[in-house]
Amino acid sequence: MLDKGLLKRDDGAKPQIYRPASSQQRTQKRMLGDLIDKVYEGSSAALMMHALSSKKATAEELKQIRDLLDQMEGES
Asked: Which residues constitute the domain of residue 50?
């Protein structure tokens, strides 16, 4: 994880202390982008279709997805 840039190491401390290199949200976004590129050939739509067909979303999750889509359409 250190080599992948996910962690930072404090070499001055004994024992060595490891800390996240980025916030959880930033790391998730980066890793998801890599997944979309490598597995779904760059298609976020393919990822979403696969995710939504693999496991039933709750009503609240579907509302959040609709809200996000509405927000994204408004930005176009």
From this structure: 24-75
